[in-house]
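Give me C-alpha coordinates for this 546-residue protein.
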Amino acid sequence: MHMVNPNVAVEPIYATTVQSIANQPIVLPVSKDTPLFVVGPNGAGKSGLMSALYRANVATAVRISAHRQNTMESNSIPFSPKDKIEHETIAKGQDTHPSARWLEWNPNMRVGLILADLIEGSNSLSRKIHAKHLEGDPSGAAKLATTLPPLEKINLLLAGAGIPIKLIIKDDGAVVASKKGGAQYSIAALSDGERAALLVAGAVLTAKPESLIIIDEPERHLHISIVTPLLLQLFSEKSDCSFVVSTHELGLPINCHQARTVLVRDSQLVGGDIQRWDLDVLEPGIEVDDSTKEALIGARRKMLFVEGTSASLDQPLYEILFPGVSVFPRESCGDVEHAVISLRDAQSLAWVQAFGIVDQDQLDAAKKAELRAKGVFALQVYSVEGLYYDPTIVRQIAERQCTVVEGDPQAMTDAAVASALHAVSEHAERMAARMTEQSVKDQISLGRPDWKKIKAGASVNITVDAQTMYQTELANLQALIAANNITAIIARYPIRETPALGAIVTALNLKSLKLYEAAVRKLLAEDAATRARLLGLFGDLPAAIN
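Here you go.
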Protein backbone atom coordinates (compact mmCIF):
# COMPACT_ATOMS: atom_id res chain seq x y z
CA MET A 1 0.00 0.00 0.00
CA HIS A 2 1.27 3.46 -0.91
CA MET A 3 1.16 6.14 1.77
CA VAL A 4 0.82 9.83 0.96
CA ASN A 5 4.11 11.72 0.77
CA PRO A 6 4.49 13.44 4.17
CA ASN A 7 6.16 16.41 2.46
CA VAL A 8 2.99 17.20 0.48
CA ALA A 9 0.93 19.82 2.30
CA VAL A 10 -2.65 18.68 2.87
CA GLU A 11 -5.03 21.18 4.46
CA PRO A 12 -6.20 19.72 7.80
CA ILE A 13 -9.65 21.29 7.72
CA TYR A 14 -11.44 17.97 7.28
CA ALA A 15 -11.19 14.59 8.96
CA THR A 16 -9.65 12.46 6.20
CA THR A 17 -7.92 9.64 8.09
CA VAL A 18 -9.26 6.14 7.40
CA GLN A 19 -8.01 2.73 8.45
CA SER A 20 -6.24 0.21 6.23
CA ILE A 21 -7.16 -3.47 6.26
CA ALA A 22 -4.01 -3.90 8.34
CA ASN A 23 -5.59 -1.39 10.79
CA GLN A 24 -3.04 1.32 10.02
CA PRO A 25 -4.05 4.99 9.49
CA ILE A 26 -4.18 6.33 5.94
CA VAL A 27 -4.54 10.09 5.36
CA LEU A 28 -6.46 10.79 2.17
CA PRO A 29 -5.08 13.84 0.28
CA VAL A 30 -8.26 15.96 0.35
CA SER A 31 -7.60 19.59 -0.56
CA LYS A 32 -9.35 22.51 -2.21
CA ASP A 33 -6.30 22.87 -4.47
CA THR A 34 -7.27 19.85 -6.56
CA PRO A 35 -10.12 17.32 -6.64
CA LEU A 36 -9.63 13.78 -5.36
CA PHE A 37 -11.05 10.98 -7.51
CA VAL A 38 -11.87 7.57 -6.04
CA VAL A 39 -11.80 4.66 -8.50
CA GLY A 40 -11.91 0.89 -8.24
CA PRO A 41 -13.93 -2.16 -9.29
CA ASN A 42 -17.50 -2.84 -8.21
CA GLY A 43 -17.66 -4.07 -4.64
CA ALA A 44 -14.21 -2.76 -3.70
CA GLY A 45 -15.63 -0.30 -1.17
CA LYS A 46 -15.72 3.07 -2.96
CA SER A 47 -19.21 4.04 -1.75
CA GLY A 48 -18.29 2.89 1.75
CA LEU A 49 -15.26 5.18 1.68
CA MET A 50 -17.38 8.10 0.49
CA SER A 51 -19.92 7.40 3.25
CA ALA A 52 -17.17 7.27 5.87
CA LEU A 53 -15.79 10.62 4.70
CA TYR A 54 -19.26 12.15 4.94
CA ARG A 55 -19.90 10.83 8.46
CA ALA A 56 -16.54 12.11 9.64
CA ASN A 57 -17.28 15.60 8.26
CA VAL A 58 -21.07 15.79 8.50
CA ALA A 59 -21.08 19.41 9.71
CA THR A 60 -19.24 20.68 6.61
CA ALA A 61 -19.96 17.98 4.01
CA VAL A 62 -22.40 17.88 1.10
CA ARG A 63 -23.19 14.40 -0.19
CA ILE A 64 -24.48 13.69 -3.71
CA SER A 65 -25.07 9.95 -4.03
CA ALA A 66 -25.06 7.84 -7.19
CA HIS A 67 -28.21 5.92 -6.33
CA ARG A 68 -30.16 9.11 -5.66
CA GLN A 69 -33.42 9.20 -7.60
CA ASN A 70 -33.79 12.36 -9.63
CA THR A 71 -37.44 12.27 -10.64
CA MET A 72 -39.47 15.36 -9.76
CA GLU A 73 -43.11 15.44 -8.68
CA SER A 74 -43.25 19.21 -9.02
CA ASN A 75 -41.24 22.21 -10.23
CA SER A 76 -42.01 24.14 -7.01
CA ILE A 77 -40.80 23.89 -3.42
CA PRO A 78 -42.94 21.17 -1.78
CA PHE A 79 -42.72 22.52 1.80
CA SER A 80 -42.59 25.68 3.90
CA PRO A 81 -39.37 27.45 5.01
CA LYS A 82 -39.92 26.08 8.52
CA ASP A 83 -40.33 22.55 7.23
CA LYS A 84 -37.20 22.97 5.11
CA ILE A 85 -35.02 23.32 8.22
CA GLU A 86 -36.55 20.17 9.69
CA HIS A 87 -36.09 18.23 6.44
CA GLU A 88 -32.44 19.28 6.20
CA THR A 89 -31.82 17.91 9.68
CA ILE A 90 -33.59 14.66 8.79
CA ALA A 91 -31.57 14.28 5.58
CA LYS A 92 -28.28 14.83 7.42
CA GLY A 93 -29.21 12.19 9.95
CA GLN A 94 -30.21 9.69 7.28
CA ASP A 95 -26.98 10.21 5.36
CA THR A 96 -24.89 9.33 8.42
CA HIS A 97 -26.46 5.87 8.66
CA PRO A 98 -24.21 3.04 7.32
CA SER A 99 -26.97 1.90 4.96
CA ALA A 100 -26.87 5.30 3.22
CA ARG A 101 -24.16 3.95 0.91
CA TRP A 102 -26.83 1.89 -0.85
CA LEU A 103 -30.25 3.13 0.39
CA GLU A 104 -31.92 6.45 -0.43
CA TRP A 105 -34.60 7.87 1.86
CA ASN A 106 -37.21 10.42 0.74
CA PRO A 107 -35.82 11.23 -2.73
CA ASN A 108 -38.58 13.75 -3.49
CA MET A 109 -37.82 15.63 -0.28
CA ARG A 110 -34.15 15.83 -1.25
CA VAL A 111 -34.99 17.17 -4.71
CA GLY A 112 -37.21 19.74 -2.99
CA LEU A 113 -34.32 20.86 -0.75
CA ILE A 114 -32.12 21.56 -3.80
CA LEU A 115 -34.91 23.53 -5.51
CA ALA A 116 -35.49 25.48 -2.31
CA ASP A 117 -31.81 26.40 -2.09
CA LEU A 118 -31.71 27.48 -5.74
CA ILE A 119 -34.78 29.68 -5.41
CA GLU A 120 -33.60 31.10 -2.10
CA GLY A 121 -30.23 31.91 -3.71
CA SER A 122 -31.97 34.13 -6.25
CA ASN A 123 -34.34 35.67 -3.70
CA SER A 124 -31.52 36.35 -1.25
CA LEU A 125 -29.51 38.19 -3.90
CA SER A 126 -32.55 40.30 -4.83
CA ARG A 127 -33.08 41.23 -1.16
CA LYS A 128 -29.44 42.26 -0.78
CA ILE A 129 -29.60 44.48 -3.86
CA HIS A 130 -32.83 46.08 -2.58
CA ALA A 131 -31.27 46.66 0.84
CA LYS A 132 -28.32 48.48 -0.75
CA HIS A 133 -30.72 50.82 -2.54
CA LEU A 134 -32.58 51.51 0.74
CA GLU A 135 -29.23 52.28 2.39
CA GLY A 136 -28.50 54.86 -0.29
CA ASP A 137 -25.66 52.81 -1.76
CA PRO A 138 -26.41 52.56 -5.50
CA SER A 139 -22.80 51.61 -6.34
CA GLY A 140 -23.01 48.70 -3.88
CA ALA A 141 -26.31 47.65 -5.40
CA ALA A 142 -24.82 47.85 -8.91
CA LYS A 143 -21.88 45.72 -7.84
CA LEU A 144 -24.17 43.08 -6.32
CA ALA A 145 -26.29 43.11 -9.49
CA THR A 146 -23.29 41.79 -11.44
CA THR A 147 -23.30 38.66 -9.27
CA LEU A 148 -25.03 35.73 -10.93
CA PRO A 149 -27.56 33.83 -8.81
CA PRO A 150 -27.10 30.03 -8.65
CA LEU A 151 -29.73 29.29 -11.30
CA GLU A 152 -28.09 31.65 -13.82
CA LYS A 153 -24.74 29.99 -13.12
CA ILE A 154 -26.35 26.64 -13.81
CA ASN A 155 -27.59 27.94 -17.16
CA LEU A 156 -24.02 28.84 -18.10
CA LEU A 157 -22.72 25.50 -16.84
CA LEU A 158 -25.32 23.58 -18.82
CA ALA A 159 -24.46 25.51 -21.96
CA GLY A 160 -20.77 24.81 -21.40
CA ALA A 161 -21.55 21.10 -21.01
CA GLY A 162 -23.53 21.04 -24.24
CA ILE A 163 -27.04 20.96 -22.71
CA PRO A 164 -29.15 23.53 -24.64
CA ILE A 165 -31.71 24.39 -21.96
CA LYS A 166 -32.36 27.53 -19.92
CA LEU A 167 -33.92 27.52 -16.45
CA ILE A 168 -36.14 30.35 -15.22
CA ILE A 169 -37.89 31.14 -11.91
CA LYS A 170 -41.42 32.30 -12.59
CA ASP A 171 -43.27 34.86 -10.46
CA ASP A 172 -45.09 32.08 -8.60
CA GLY A 173 -41.77 30.53 -7.57
CA ALA A 174 -41.93 27.60 -9.98
CA VAL A 175 -38.80 26.64 -11.93
CA VAL A 176 -39.39 26.05 -15.63
CA ALA A 177 -37.17 25.24 -18.61
CA SER A 178 -37.02 26.16 -22.25
CA LYS A 179 -34.94 24.55 -24.97
CA LYS A 180 -33.25 26.70 -27.60
CA GLY A 181 -35.59 29.61 -26.86
CA GLY A 182 -38.74 27.50 -27.27
CA ALA A 183 -41.85 27.24 -25.09
CA GLN A 184 -41.48 26.95 -21.33
CA TYR A 185 -42.18 23.60 -19.65
CA SER A 186 -41.91 22.08 -16.17
CA ILE A 187 -38.47 20.89 -15.08
CA ALA A 188 -40.25 17.66 -14.09
CA ALA A 189 -40.32 16.96 -17.85
CA LEU A 190 -36.54 17.31 -18.29
CA SER A 191 -34.68 14.25 -19.53
CA ASP A 192 -32.97 12.00 -16.98
CA GLY A 193 -29.55 13.43 -17.81
CA GLU A 194 -30.79 17.06 -17.77
CA ARG A 195 -32.37 16.59 -14.33
CA ALA A 196 -29.20 14.94 -13.05
CA ALA A 197 -27.06 17.85 -14.31
CA LEU A 198 -29.45 20.35 -12.69
CA LEU A 199 -29.47 18.57 -9.33
CA VAL A 200 -25.71 17.94 -9.19
CA ALA A 201 -24.94 21.54 -10.16
CA GLY A 202 -27.62 22.86 -7.80
CA ALA A 203 -26.30 20.90 -4.83
CA VAL A 204 -22.73 22.05 -5.52
CA LEU A 205 -23.44 25.73 -6.23
CA THR A 206 -25.64 26.18 -3.13
CA ALA A 207 -23.11 24.51 -0.83
CA LYS A 208 -21.72 26.71 1.94
CA PRO A 209 -18.17 28.08 1.61
CA GLU A 210 -15.37 25.67 2.60
CA SER A 211 -17.66 22.65 2.19
CA LEU A 212 -16.40 19.16 1.54
CA ILE A 213 -18.42 18.13 -1.53
CA ILE A 214 -18.70 14.35 -1.97
CA ILE A 215 -20.06 13.18 -5.34
CA ASP A 216 -20.65 9.44 -5.78
CA GLU A 217 -20.59 8.23 -9.42
CA PRO A 218 -21.87 11.33 -11.27
CA GLU A 219 -21.74 9.42 -14.56
CA ARG A 220 -24.63 7.21 -13.39
CA HIS A 221 -27.15 9.53 -15.07
CA LEU A 222 -24.82 11.64 -17.22
CA HIS A 223 -22.96 10.82 -20.43
CA ILE A 224 -19.18 11.26 -20.17
CA SER A 225 -19.29 14.00 -22.82
CA ILE A 226 -21.46 15.98 -20.38
CA VAL A 227 -20.17 14.98 -16.96
CA THR A 228 -16.52 15.89 -17.61
CA PRO A 229 -17.01 19.54 -18.68
CA LEU A 230 -19.76 19.98 -16.06
CA LEU A 231 -17.54 18.83 -13.19
CA LEU A 232 -14.54 20.81 -14.37
CA GLN A 233 -16.68 23.95 -14.41
CA LEU A 234 -18.10 23.16 -10.95
CA PHE A 235 -14.59 22.71 -9.55
CA SER A 236 -13.74 26.18 -10.84
CA GLU A 237 -16.97 27.80 -9.58
CA LYS A 238 -16.51 26.44 -6.04
CA SER A 239 -12.77 26.82 -5.69
CA ASP A 240 -13.19 27.46 -1.96
CA CYS A 241 -14.55 23.92 -1.51
CA SER A 242 -12.88 20.51 -1.61
CA PHE A 243 -14.20 17.80 -3.94
CA VAL A 244 -14.06 14.03 -3.62
CA VAL A 245 -15.57 12.21 -6.62
CA SER A 246 -16.14 8.46 -6.83
CA THR A 247 -16.34 7.20 -10.41
CA HIS A 248 -16.10 4.23 -12.76
CA GLU A 249 -15.34 6.59 -15.65
CA LEU A 250 -11.53 6.57 -15.88
CA GLY A 251 -11.55 9.52 -18.26
CA LEU A 252 -12.57 11.85 -15.45
CA PRO A 253 -9.29 11.85 -13.49
CA ILE A 254 -7.35 11.72 -16.77
CA ASN A 255 -9.04 14.91 -18.02
CA CYS A 256 -8.35 16.71 -14.73
CA HIS A 257 -4.58 16.76 -15.03
CA GLN A 258 -3.68 17.94 -11.53
CA ALA A 259 -6.13 15.67 -9.73
CA ARG A 260 -5.13 13.10 -7.18
CA THR A 261 -6.62 9.63 -7.48
CA VAL A 262 -7.29 6.96 -4.87
CA LEU A 263 -7.33 3.39 -6.20
CA VAL A 264 -9.56 1.32 -3.92
CA ARG A 265 -8.59 -2.34 -4.12
CA ASP A 266 -10.66 -3.94 -1.36
CA SER A 267 -12.48 -3.20 1.87
CA GLN A 268 -13.43 -4.90 5.10
CA LEU A 269 -16.61 -4.91 7.16
CA VAL A 270 -16.37 -4.21 10.87
CA GLY A 271 -19.59 -4.61 12.80
CA GLY A 272 -21.70 -4.61 9.64
CA ASP A 273 -20.12 -1.40 8.28
CA ILE A 274 -17.20 -0.87 5.89
CA GLN A 275 -14.44 0.61 8.04
CA ARG A 276 -11.14 -0.56 6.54
CA TRP A 277 -9.69 -0.31 3.05
CA ASP A 278 -6.86 -1.53 0.85
CA LEU A 279 -5.96 1.41 -1.39
CA ASP A 280 -3.20 3.30 -3.18
CA VAL A 281 -2.83 7.01 -3.89
CA LEU A 282 -1.80 8.28 -7.31
CA GLU A 283 -0.28 11.73 -6.95
CA PRO A 284 -0.65 14.39 -9.69
CA GLY A 285 2.17 15.19 -12.07
CA ILE A 286 3.09 11.60 -12.93
CA GLU A 287 5.14 11.74 -16.13
CA VAL A 288 3.32 9.08 -18.12
CA ASP A 289 1.13 9.46 -21.18
CA ASP A 290 -2.65 9.50 -20.81
CA SER A 291 -3.22 5.97 -22.11
CA THR A 292 -0.71 4.56 -19.63
CA LYS A 293 -2.19 6.64 -16.82
CA GLU A 294 -5.67 5.38 -17.65
CA ALA A 295 -4.36 1.81 -17.59
CA LEU A 296 -2.74 2.52 -14.23
CA ILE A 297 -5.97 3.86 -12.73
CA GLY A 298 -7.90 0.78 -13.80
CA ALA A 299 -5.22 -1.75 -12.88
CA ARG A 300 -4.10 -4.10 -10.18
CA ARG A 301 -0.70 -3.51 -8.63
CA LYS A 302 0.92 -5.79 -11.21
CA MET A 303 0.59 -4.62 -14.83
CA LEU A 304 1.55 -6.43 -18.00
CA PHE A 305 1.79 -4.55 -21.32
CA VAL A 306 1.63 -6.71 -24.46
CA GLU A 307 1.66 -6.15 -28.19
CA GLY A 308 -1.72 -6.15 -29.89
CA THR A 309 -5.10 -4.44 -29.67
CA SER A 310 -8.14 -4.87 -27.44
CA ALA A 311 -9.64 -7.16 -30.12
CA SER A 312 -6.57 -9.40 -30.51
CA LEU A 313 -5.97 -12.85 -29.05
CA ASP A 314 -3.25 -11.77 -26.63
CA GLN A 315 -5.16 -10.28 -23.71
CA PRO A 316 -7.63 -13.13 -22.94
CA LEU A 317 -4.85 -15.74 -23.15
CA TYR A 318 -2.42 -13.79 -20.97
CA GLU A 319 -5.12 -13.16 -18.36
CA ILE A 320 -5.40 -16.95 -17.96
CA LEU A 321 -1.65 -17.49 -17.85
CA PHE A 322 -1.01 -14.59 -15.45
CA PRO A 323 -3.91 -14.46 -12.97
CA GLY A 324 -3.96 -11.44 -10.68
CA VAL A 325 -2.11 -9.30 -13.26
CA SER A 326 -3.81 -6.53 -15.30
CA VAL A 327 -3.07 -6.98 -19.02
CA PHE A 328 -3.04 -4.00 -21.41
CA PRO A 329 -2.43 -4.13 -25.19
CA ARG A 330 -0.11 -1.71 -26.99
CA GLU A 331 0.37 -1.35 -30.74
CA SER A 332 4.11 -1.99 -31.04
CA CYS A 333 7.07 -3.34 -29.11
CA GLY A 334 8.33 0.24 -28.74
CA ASP A 335 5.01 1.24 -27.15
CA VAL A 336 5.27 -1.69 -24.73
CA GLU A 337 8.80 -0.67 -23.77
CA HIS A 338 7.77 2.97 -23.30
CA ALA A 339 4.81 2.10 -21.05
CA VAL A 340 6.86 -0.17 -18.80
CA ILE A 341 9.79 2.21 -18.48
CA SER A 342 7.62 5.26 -17.77
CA LEU A 343 5.87 3.49 -14.89
CA ARG A 344 9.09 2.06 -13.47
CA ASP A 345 10.76 5.47 -13.63
CA ALA A 346 7.97 7.22 -11.68
CA GLN A 347 9.27 7.32 -8.12
CA SER A 348 5.84 7.91 -6.58
CA LEU A 349 4.55 4.69 -8.18
CA ALA A 350 6.76 2.36 -6.16
CA TRP A 351 3.73 0.17 -5.44
CA VAL A 352 3.31 -0.58 -9.17
CA GLN A 353 5.05 -3.57 -10.74
CA ALA A 354 5.11 -3.09 -14.52
CA PHE A 355 6.20 -5.73 -17.03
CA GLY A 356 6.05 -6.10 -20.80
CA ILE A 357 5.94 -8.83 -23.44
CA VAL A 358 7.20 -8.37 -26.99
CA ASP A 359 6.64 -11.33 -29.26
CA GLN A 360 9.33 -10.95 -31.92
CA ASP A 361 11.77 -13.84 -31.71
CA GLN A 362 14.14 -12.25 -34.25
CA LEU A 363 15.55 -9.88 -31.63
CA ASP A 364 19.19 -10.69 -31.02
CA ALA A 365 20.47 -11.81 -27.63
CA ALA A 366 21.92 -8.39 -26.75
CA LYS A 367 18.61 -6.61 -27.43
CA LYS A 368 16.69 -9.21 -25.45
CA ALA A 369 19.01 -8.74 -22.49
CA GLU A 370 18.63 -4.95 -22.74
CA LEU A 371 14.85 -5.22 -22.76
CA ARG A 372 14.80 -7.76 -19.93
CA ALA A 373 16.76 -5.36 -17.73
CA LYS A 374 13.93 -2.85 -18.28
CA GLY A 375 11.21 -5.36 -17.40
CA VAL A 376 10.29 -6.25 -21.01
CA PHE A 377 10.52 -9.92 -21.96
CA ALA A 378 10.70 -11.41 -25.46
CA LEU A 379 8.26 -14.23 -26.18
CA GLN A 380 9.94 -17.25 -27.75
CA VAL A 381 7.45 -17.39 -30.63
CA TYR A 382 6.66 -14.92 -33.40
CA SER A 383 3.24 -13.95 -32.08
CA VAL A 384 0.46 -15.17 -29.82
CA GLU A 385 -0.75 -17.55 -32.56
CA GLY A 386 2.42 -19.52 -31.85
CA LEU A 387 0.90 -20.31 -28.45
CA TYR A 388 -2.64 -21.05 -29.60
CA TYR A 389 -1.54 -23.27 -32.50
CA ASP A 390 1.47 -24.93 -30.90
CA PRO A 391 1.46 -28.54 -32.22
CA THR A 392 1.21 -29.98 -28.70
CA ILE A 393 -1.85 -27.80 -28.07
CA VAL A 394 -3.31 -28.93 -31.40
CA ARG A 395 -2.85 -32.57 -30.30
CA GLN A 396 -4.61 -31.91 -26.98
CA ILE A 397 -7.56 -30.26 -28.71
CA ALA A 398 -7.73 -33.24 -31.09
CA GLU A 399 -7.92 -35.57 -28.09
CA ARG A 400 -10.78 -33.54 -26.62
CA GLN A 401 -12.55 -33.50 -29.96
CA CYS A 402 -12.38 -37.29 -30.24
CA THR A 403 -14.29 -37.65 -26.99
CA VAL A 404 -17.34 -36.11 -28.67
CA VAL A 405 -16.85 -37.00 -32.37
CA GLU A 406 -15.61 -40.22 -33.92
CA GLY A 407 -11.96 -40.16 -34.93
CA ASP A 408 -8.35 -40.95 -34.01
CA PRO A 409 -6.47 -38.09 -32.26
CA GLN A 410 -3.12 -38.91 -33.90
CA ALA A 411 -4.62 -39.17 -37.38
CA MET A 412 -6.51 -35.90 -36.82
CA THR A 413 -3.30 -34.18 -35.65
CA ASP A 414 -1.27 -35.54 -38.59
CA ALA A 415 -3.90 -34.26 -41.03
CA ALA A 416 -3.83 -30.84 -39.37
CA VAL A 417 -0.03 -30.63 -39.62
CA ALA A 418 0.03 -31.76 -43.26
CA SER A 419 -2.64 -29.24 -44.23
CA ALA A 420 -0.79 -26.44 -42.44
CA LEU A 421 2.53 -27.27 -44.15
CA HIS A 422 0.87 -27.27 -47.55
CA ALA A 423 -0.70 -23.85 -46.90
CA VAL A 424 2.61 -22.42 -45.70
CA SER A 425 4.55 -23.72 -48.73
CA GLU A 426 2.25 -21.83 -51.11
CA HIS A 427 2.91 -18.54 -49.28
CA ALA A 428 6.58 -18.90 -48.37
CA GLU A 429 7.84 -15.82 -50.22
CA ARG A 430 5.14 -13.54 -48.86
CA MET A 431 5.63 -14.87 -45.32
CA ALA A 432 9.38 -14.26 -45.49
CA ALA A 433 8.74 -10.73 -46.80
CA ARG A 434 6.19 -10.02 -44.05
CA MET A 435 8.60 -11.36 -41.44
CA THR A 436 11.26 -9.04 -42.80
CA GLU A 437 8.86 -6.10 -42.80
CA GLN A 438 8.04 -6.69 -39.12
CA SER A 439 11.74 -7.06 -38.29
CA VAL A 440 12.48 -3.73 -39.95
CA LYS A 441 9.64 -2.02 -38.09
CA ASP A 442 10.81 -3.45 -34.78
CA GLN A 443 14.40 -2.37 -35.29
CA ILE A 444 13.22 1.16 -36.07
CA SER A 445 10.72 1.17 -33.19
CA LEU A 446 13.19 -0.11 -30.63
CA GLY A 447 15.94 2.17 -31.92
CA ARG A 448 13.97 5.40 -31.63
CA PRO A 449 14.95 7.57 -28.63
CA ASP A 450 12.36 8.78 -26.15
CA TRP A 451 12.25 12.40 -24.97
CA LYS A 452 14.65 11.71 -22.10
CA LYS A 453 17.33 10.36 -24.46
CA ILE A 454 16.77 13.26 -26.86
CA LYS A 455 17.10 15.74 -23.99
CA ALA A 456 20.32 13.99 -22.97
CA GLY A 457 21.73 14.53 -26.49
CA ALA A 458 21.04 11.19 -28.17
CA SER A 459 21.03 11.19 -31.98
CA VAL A 460 18.98 8.98 -34.32
CA ASN A 461 20.84 6.88 -36.92
CA ILE A 462 19.03 3.65 -37.84
CA THR A 463 20.18 1.56 -40.83
CA VAL A 464 18.42 -1.68 -41.88
CA ASP A 465 19.49 -4.02 -44.72
CA ALA A 466 16.02 -5.32 -45.63
CA GLN A 467 17.04 -7.36 -48.72
CA THR A 468 19.70 -9.37 -46.91
CA MET A 469 17.24 -10.02 -44.09
CA TYR A 470 14.60 -11.17 -46.60
CA GLN A 471 16.86 -13.65 -48.42
CA THR A 472 17.97 -15.14 -45.10
CA GLU A 473 14.38 -15.52 -43.93
CA LEU A 474 13.22 -17.13 -47.18
CA ALA A 475 16.05 -19.69 -47.15
CA ASN A 476 15.34 -20.51 -43.51
CA LEU A 477 11.60 -20.97 -44.10
CA GLN A 478 12.10 -23.19 -47.15
CA ALA A 479 14.47 -25.41 -45.16
CA LEU A 480 11.90 -25.77 -42.34
CA ILE A 481 9.17 -26.69 -44.85
CA ALA A 482 11.41 -29.35 -46.39
CA ALA A 483 12.04 -30.79 -42.92
CA ASN A 484 8.28 -30.77 -42.07
CA ASN A 485 9.19 -28.74 -38.97
CA ILE A 486 5.78 -27.22 -38.30
CA THR A 487 6.75 -26.43 -34.70
CA ALA A 488 9.56 -24.08 -35.75
CA ILE A 489 7.44 -22.53 -38.51
CA ILE A 490 4.55 -21.70 -36.19
CA ALA A 491 6.96 -20.35 -33.60
CA ARG A 492 8.80 -18.02 -35.99
CA TYR A 493 6.52 -16.93 -38.84
CA PRO A 494 3.22 -15.04 -39.18
CA ILE A 495 1.15 -18.05 -40.23
CA ARG A 496 -2.05 -16.16 -39.42
CA GLU A 497 -1.54 -14.47 -42.81
CA THR A 498 -1.91 -17.81 -44.63
CA PRO A 499 -4.72 -20.38 -44.79
CA ALA A 500 -2.69 -22.59 -42.38
CA LEU A 501 -4.72 -21.81 -39.26
CA GLY A 502 -7.99 -22.47 -41.04
CA ALA A 503 -6.58 -25.74 -42.36
CA ILE A 504 -5.70 -26.86 -38.83
CA VAL A 505 -9.16 -26.00 -37.51
CA THR A 506 -10.90 -27.78 -40.40
CA ALA A 507 -8.85 -30.93 -39.80
CA LEU A 508 -9.99 -30.90 -36.17
CA ASN A 509 -13.66 -30.78 -37.25
CA LEU A 510 -14.22 -27.37 -35.68
CA LYS A 511 -16.34 -24.77 -37.43
CA SER A 512 -14.25 -21.62 -36.88
CA LEU A 513 -11.00 -20.18 -35.57
CA LYS A 514 -12.93 -18.55 -32.73
CA LEU A 515 -14.29 -21.90 -31.55
CA TYR A 516 -10.80 -23.41 -31.66
CA GLU A 517 -9.25 -20.48 -29.78
CA ALA A 518 -12.00 -20.61 -27.15
CA ALA A 519 -11.30 -24.34 -26.75
CA VAL A 520 -7.61 -23.57 -26.19
CA ARG A 521 -8.43 -21.05 -23.46
CA LYS A 522 -10.75 -23.57 -21.81
CA LEU A 523 -7.97 -26.17 -21.95
CA LEU A 524 -5.51 -23.78 -20.31
CA ALA A 525 -7.98 -22.78 -17.62
CA GLU A 526 -8.50 -26.44 -16.71
CA ASP A 527 -5.02 -27.95 -17.21
CA ALA A 528 -2.23 -26.69 -14.93
CA ALA A 529 0.44 -28.75 -16.72
CA THR A 530 -0.39 -27.16 -20.09
CA ARG A 531 -0.30 -23.69 -18.54
CA ALA A 532 3.08 -24.41 -17.01
CA ARG A 533 4.46 -25.63 -20.37
CA LEU A 534 3.30 -22.49 -22.20
CA LEU A 535 4.69 -20.26 -19.46
CA GLY A 536 8.08 -21.73 -20.31
CA LEU A 537 7.88 -19.78 -23.60
CA PHE A 538 7.96 -16.48 -21.68
CA GLY A 539 11.53 -16.79 -20.44
CA ASP A 540 12.12 -15.30 -16.98
CA LEU A 541 8.85 -13.32 -16.93
CA PRO A 542 6.77 -15.72 -14.76
CA ALA A 543 9.50 -15.82 -12.12
CA ALA A 544 9.84 -12.02 -12.20
CA ILE A 545 6.10 -11.49 -11.76
CA ASN A 546 5.85 -14.00 -8.92
